[in-house]
Amino acid sequence: MNEIDGMHLRAELIEVGQRLDQRTLISGTEGNVSVRLGQDSILITQSGTMLGRLMQEDFVRVGLSSGELLDKHGKPTSELGAHLSAYRSDPNIQAIVHAHPRSCVALTLRGWTLEGIPLPEAAYAIGSVPTCAFAVPGSDEGGEVMAQWAAKRDALVFDRHGAFTFGKTPFEAQARMEMLDAVAQSVLLAGGPDQLRPMTTEQVDRVVANALKSGVREDSLRAWADAVKLR
User: Fold this and answer.
1) Domain range holding 38?
2) Full-prediction pTM beyond 0.90?
3) Across the strands, what pairs with 69?
């Protein structure tokens, strides 16, 4: 990874951070973003940074295998362990967005999940989204929980905390975060998962057949379909 490529990736992450802030998916110094650099390192936001005001120097490089800081100064976000766990779990993950959509946090406070929401948009963009076990923010627990799901899903909600989305690029991970928030808001506006009108089996099968053509993660899509059909 040369310096020009590194600057380009920083610029993409800066734009993603601004978008998260504009969409009110974070507050204050909440959230963090990262991207894979080559085979064995990542670029991730420093601790205490405001994603809406990121600058080129607000990132640090960390060894993917070692977890060690590769720069002479700086301190990575406290959620580093969760990011490393995701990258180690699935080589297809190239970028990660972690935000705190109020919609997703509210769902977990009610004990509601996004595992089988009968919306075609959910199937195409994020598939089935589990609510993962509670992990103390910034602790090693986050990495342990992440390891259970990262290779199976494109989006995860952490109980009473926030959400993680993955992508081939920072912008794809960001788009999934926005769609996750939109789906969660729709569920809240409808009065919760139990108030949603079900889809027919035939409708679900048609959505799955078409979504598979668009490159949706198949295991997540199948899990979405199974959950929707059980409603």
Assistant:
1) 3-229
2) yes
3) 62
